[in-house]
Specification:
Elements (H helix, E strand, L loop, with lengths): L35 H15 L2 E2 H8 L3 H13 L3 E7 L2 E6 L1 H13 L8 E2 H10 L9 H7 L7 H13 L3 E4 L6 H7 L7 E5 L1 E4 L2 E4 L21 E5 L2 E4 L11 E2 L6 E2 L2 H4 L4 E4 L9 H14 L1 E5 L5 E5 L3 E6 L3 H4 L2 H6 L2 E4 L5 H15 L5 H13 L8 H15 L8 H11 L4
Parallel strand pairs: 4-7, 5-16, 5-17, 8-12, 10-13, 13-16
Antiparallel strand pairs: 1-3, 2-3, 6-9, 7-8, 11-12, 14-15
Helix pairs in contact: 1-3, 1-4, 2-3, 13-14, 13-15, 14-16, 15-16
Length: 429
């Protein structure tokens, strides 16, 4: 089964209006928790890029209270970086002065971030720990619901449920095609709650873009006017990486053009699930990944480094799922495997489960399930020395439908169709 991928992108260009936060919003510049100069620089850049804005519009772009924007405006006007152009509905409309435009152009040449005010590293650390993925109560009903579309035994469901409750890493291993990827990708469905994710985080006056619409699923909940709009209410993150994973994806990425950082994938996955599919087949060596994560998996913290060499600590609050069809003992040493407390072998299926899987697949592909035809396939597989893999029903049903579509007829599940799909799917002996 092919691994899904993530797209590593920045979010500093444009921002949708925030949906909700849930944290009380700061009411003064000092309560924001970030450098005052950073906020003033953001305001100057936004005025330069947007032209004239009301103070209310500027507050919306920066995701902060109007009272704070008024405080910033007074400081910028005193420095002759902005001026009042008029009044709209009792709210002043402002624009950058010539001196302000010069200042903005200088700032943008160094850093093109122009969006919501970042949160402090301390605030980010505190919030991640407050909504930890390791502190959730998960019960059998939720696990059964999450895996309702898969044919799994009670023992396996119990193992998966216990792993979710622990919040610690899990390894799914076994032969190819047995459903490890499908199980891993269904695991995040166990979580039905929401977490707060900031648009960006400030560290040592550097900006790290964090919220990523490709990964973080925003919740459609109306925001309170008193909420801190620098945070987005989202479902718990779900990040999936496969063979494309590189060591660079685990480090801060400084864009030489925009001048600000993009968070590494494990930071984007905080408070959620990170799936490492096809573990052992990444573009980075397994031992490099193991050495990089052995401390985070054990202590729940990670260390990142800015371009100047400054190191800082972030939470590593992630339910990590490793899926592999390689021998785990050949991929990792005992010390690393000990930190993965749940190891589940996903093996070939029994004939009764093979029938159940095929019945479900037929419903998805518009085929009429026929037990005798499935028995015919099981005999073909046995004669060909093929074990019963969970992936075969879907793959062969898709082949049957492709033949039918090519021949401009309705697909049918019968012995002839199954035999033709079988002959196409497997290498000739």
């Amino acid at each position: 089964m092919p691994a899904a991928t993530i797209t590593m992108t920045t979010t500093g260009g444009s921002f949708s209006p925030p949906t909700s936060a849930g944290l009380p919003g700061p009411q003064t510049l000092g309560q924001l928790g970030v450098h005052r100069g950073l906020c003033e620089d953001l305001a100057v850049k936004l005025l330069y890029l947007e032209g004239e804005l009301t103070l209310l519009d500027l507050a919306g772009r920066m995701c902060i209270a109007l009272a704070i924007v008024e405080e910033i405006f007074e400081r910028l006007r005193k420095a002759q970086f902005c001026e009042v152009k008029g009044v709209v509905g009792g709210i002043r409309r402002i624009a950058a002065t010539t001196q302000g435009k010069t200042r903005a152009a200088e700032l943008l040449s160094r850093n093109q971030y122009a969006g919501p005010v970042p949160v402090s590293l301390e605030s980010y650390d505190r919030q991640v720990r407050a909504q930890s993925v390791k502190d959730l109560d998960v019960h059998a009903r939720q696990v059964e619901s999450a895996f309702a579309g898969l044919v799994l035994g009670k023992r396996l469901l119990a193992q998966l449920g216990a792993a979710v409750v622990s919040g610690r890493a899990i390894m799914l291993y076994g032969p190819a095609g047995t459903g490890k990827t499908a199980i891993a990708q269904a695991l995040p469905s166990v979580y039905q709650d929401q977490v707060l994710i900031p648009y960006a985080v400030e560290v040592d006056n550097q900006i790290i873009s964090l919220f990523d619409s490709h990964i973080h699923q925003r919740c459609d909940v109306l925001a309170s006017p008193d909420d801190d709009r620098r945070w987005v209410l989202s479902r718990r993150p779900r990040v999936v990486v496969g063979g494309e994973m590189t060591s660079e994806m685990l480090d801060l990425q400084l864009n030489s053009i925009t001048g600000f950082y993009s968070a590494p994938l494990q930071m984007k996955a905080n408070n959620g699930v990170l799936i490492v599919d096809d573990f052992g087949r990444q573009r980075m060596r397994p031992e490099d990944l193991i050495n990089r994560w052995i401390v985070p998996l054990d202590r729940g913290i990670d260390f990142l480094t800015l371009l100047g060499g400054q190191k800082f600590e972030i939470p590593f609050d992630i339910f990590v799922v490793f899926a592999t069809n390689l021998d785990p003992s050949q991929l990792a040493d005992e010390a690393f495997l000990r930190r993965i407390q749940t190891k589940v072998k996903v093996d070939y299926v029994q004939p009764s489960d093979f029938h159940r899987i095929f019945r479900g697949v037929c419903g998805q592909f518009g085929l009429v399930y026929d037990a005798d035809t499935v028995e015919h396939l099981i005999k073909l597989l046995g004669n060909g020395g093929q074990p019963l893999r969970a992936c075969y029903p879907r793959d062969l049903a898709q082949s049957i439908c492709s033949f039918a579509r090519y021949e401009d007829r309705a697909p049918q599940l019968n012995c002839d169709a199954v035999t033709r799909a079988y002959d196409t799917y497997f290498l000739a002996s």
